[in-house]
């Protein structure tokens, strides 16, 4: 367990250093997780070491939503005063995410022309 936390902390720290040194708008922990993912893609020797502990952490991931819930309760008056912009932002961002997903899915689902049909098209152009 401690070894897993040490590995995660090393990746997070390296991500923080890179983010700070290059003035990137991406948080260090995000860069660290991207680097850990890349490491595991190319060399999976760390996987057996971290798999057990990370699986247990993921089981309790919902605990990370407690601070957000507390923040909502603490700032309920402010949210009450600014509910309309919040609602508009939620609706518009949700709509844009759904529309973008639909467009990308549609583009990916287009069938390419059959090789025989492409050959026929090219032979007709040459004549």
UniProtKB/TrEMBL annotation:
Keywords: Cell membrane, Membrane, Transmembrane, Transmembrane helix. It holds the Pfam family LrgA. The chain crosses the membrane at residues 25-42, 57-77, 83-104. InterPro entries: LrgA/CidA. It is found in: Cell membrane. Its main location: membrane. It comes from the Bacteria. It is a multi-pass membrane protein. This is Holin-like protein CidA. It comes from Cupriavidus numazuensis. The gene is cidA.
